[in-house]
Amino acid sequence: MADRRSSAPSAAPVLPTLGGKRSSYRERVADALRAALIAGELRAGEVYSAPTLAARFGVSATPVREAMLDLAKEGLVDTVPNKGFRVTVVSERQLDEYTHIRSLVEIPTTVGLAATADPVSLDALRPAAREIVTAAAAGDLIAYVEADTRFHLGLLALAGNAHLVEVVGDLRKRSRLYGLNALAESGRLEASAEEHLELLDALLARDEAAVREVMTRHLGHVRGLWAAH
C-alpha cells in the first residue's frame, strides 16, 4: 500500500480538535501538536523549535511554546534548553508496562459493565464506534484517534469512577504514539476498528466471557501492533 503521508498536502494544516471541543486557543494548538505526535508527523527523538512548529501549523510561536510545555507535563516531549522540545521515545519496557496496567484496569472494568451498564448508555456509544470504523477505512488517523478516545473513555465512564478514566486517558496518550501509520497502510487498522462494534454487541448481550475475549484481543493489538515502531 502506498505511503499515505507522501500524498499529504504541503500546505499548513488546520488545527484539528482531538478529544472534544476546547475552550482556549492554547488548548487547540496543544491538540494539533498532540495529534501530529500520534499520527507520526512529529518523530520520536527529534528536536523541534517553537518557531519551526509555529510556521508548520500556521500559528504564532507563543501559543506553540505554551502548548509544548503542556505536552511536556504529559510526558510526551522533553524540554531542550535553547533548542526547543524533543519528542519522547517510549522504550519497549515502558510499552509493556503501560499495556499491563491498562489490562489490569480496563478488562475487569469493562467485563463488569456487562452486568451493570444501562443498555441505552451502551448503545449511545455506537455512533463513536462507527466513526472509528469509517476513519480506519479512510486512513484518517486523527479522526480515528479522536473517536477511539471518546469511545473507550466514554465506556469506562459508565463505571462511575472518574479517576480511573483519567488514569487510562493518560496511559493511552503515552502508549499510542507510534505505529498507527504502519497499521493503516497494511490494512490491519480496519479489523481492529471493527472490534469496537463487536465489544458493544457483547456488552448488550450481557456476555461477560465474550467481553473479556474481545477486550483481551483488543489490548493485545495496542502492544503488538499499534505500539510497534
TrEMBL record:
Alphabetized UniProt keyword annotations: DNA-binding, Transcription, Transcription regulation
Domain HTH gntR-type: 23-90
SUPFAM superfamilies per the UniProt record, alphabetical: GntR ligand-binding domain-like, Winged helix' DNA-binding domain
Record bears the keyword DNA-binding: yes
Pfam families: FCD (PF07729), GntR (PF00392)
Xref: PROSITE patterns: HTH_GNTR
SMART domains cross-referenced by the UniProt entry: FCD, HTH_GNTR
The protein's name in its UniProt record: GntR family transcriptional regulator
Species of the source: Streptomyces siamensis
